[in-house]
């Protein structure tokens, strides 16, 4: 009787071991298979980066920095057998904070959005020293420095040529980026003052004296009253106290 019980116990242990052993590989293989069937987050981010890099006009910038956001580790996407379709998400652009839309067009399709931060560096004109309101800019007042242009957005200058001779509308500290609304053409003619009217045509030039009827800077169109004839004409301010009519 004891011998029979011992045999039954050995049979039960062997059977339990066999069942446990045979079930382990299936569990391991299932986990490995699941892992292999998921699309890598790294590859998704790389696809998004390549899309952004390919669509930025690099010749306009001194350097470009693209940083991709990490996808949520809980996100599980099946392995896509086809190249991912990449586009900008609605309202996004190739600068600053942006979002890339990626889609798998397989028989088991999925869509994912990946965030990114794009910095586009280039030279912008800044003040070399603190400058006061009304100051007339010269080349010694200006320097070029590298900045993230995507953060400035608009209204900056990349060349000093346009700024030289312009007048500041406000006080600016040192290393301040100069924007279009900070400057104006300096006042060259004031309303009520005497000006020289130059009438030019092919082969001749006539100078007259007149009274300015408006205040303006270089290139502005103003009306002038001829002192001799009292006739009112319109001309372009060319220099301090000089108005040209054609």
From TrEMBL:
Residues 122-184 form the SAF domain. It is found in: Periplasm. Keywords: Bacterial flagellum biogenesis, Cell projection, Cilium, Flagellum, Periplasm, Signal. GO terms for biological process: bacterial-type flagellum assembly. Residues 1-30 form the signal peptide. Pfam families: ChapFlgA, ChapFlgA_N. One of its GO terms (cellular component) is periplasmic space. The keyword Protease does not apply. It comes from the Bacteria. Belongs to the FlgA family. Involved in the assembly process of the P-ring formation. It may associate with FlgF on the rod constituting a structure essential for the P-ring assembly or may act as a modulator protein for the P-ring assembly. This is Flagella basal body P-ring formation protein FlgA.
